[in-house]
């Protein structure tokens, strides 16, 4: 074994190099678990598993070492069910081609491993890095223990030490791969947030310098149009044109006010508010709007959920998200509003069964000037993101084309002791 240290390091390189190559040349964003197949990541995992199996290290006579377990685990945890299944089937088929004598044992073992990974993967993405490493390490310890027990019952005690040594090297490689993926994901997310902050800064400066100057002549123009509309000499068409002009000026005023709100976020008026009560009022307010749009709204709101926020701004966020959900539905759809508490956080979910969005559209949400609506500016959602960030919270969006979207607001819960 010790004579093959160079070959062992080569296998470590087989695991780590494809991951770095993927992030450097193939990846277009943070590696996030979705229902759709990430074909670039799948390709990298297949290359990884084939390379490590094609060049095994002979530990003892008739006993080879490779790290095919690592791409299998990574495929399920970061690629999803389909990606993991493809990698496992490809690996087993490759074993069959090269004539592995333990093919049936491998099928059973990896079937059990796949089932365990499927149980973990749903919660995996929401865990911290330390918890992710701990769970994967525990799973790997379980696999190593079963191997050692099998060798013990086969009276191959001499190979137990080598099995443990090989497993330690594989575990180090696996943990290193996970830490690289997580850290690169974090860097990409931070880079995305930095770019978004720079855009917000530019828009804020633009709003602060232009909005006031534009609003003053618009106010004067609106006033003169109102005076003109009162002239009895105007015919019906002329009055209608003036009314349309006033409506468009009002719409422009509303957009400018949004820009001013973006330029000067309100950090004052932060109180301990019952968001359950505010949410129920907003749902009741928006029920009229749902009727006009041939949709319905239902809610499941837990009582006595408190946060520290500006009441008016929080209402603005809730109205904006619910209104967007209603407008995303063509007809006969439902917007569902849920509110609950979990681990010291208040979770508010706004779900619709509307047209949905592509991953690219979801990625651009909250960016100034971007909107999925024909007449939208995107400023309303940008302000909503900014308000929630000001409250030390965040808005998470999941969506699928043709099935709808879910906007989840996560905010720190305010207890009576902290008020």
Automatic annotation (TrEMBL):
Residues 209-415 form the Histidine kinase domain. This is histidine kinase. Pfam families: HATPase_c, HisKA. CDD domains: HATPase, HisKA. One of its GO terms (molecular function) is kinase activity. Keywords: ATP-binding, Kinase, Membrane, Nucleotide-binding, Phosphoprotein, Transferase, Transmembrane, Transmembrane helix, Two-component regulatory system. The keyword Transferase applies. It is an enzyme of class 2 (transferase). The chain crosses the membrane at residues 7-25, 37-57, 69-97, 103-121, 133-154, 160-181. It comes from the Bacteria. It catalyses: ATP + protein L-histidine = ADP + protein N-phospho-L-histidine. InterPro entries: HATPase_C_sf, HATPase_dom, His_kinase_dom, HisK_dim/P_dom, HisK_dim/P_sf, Sig_transdc_His_kin-like_C.
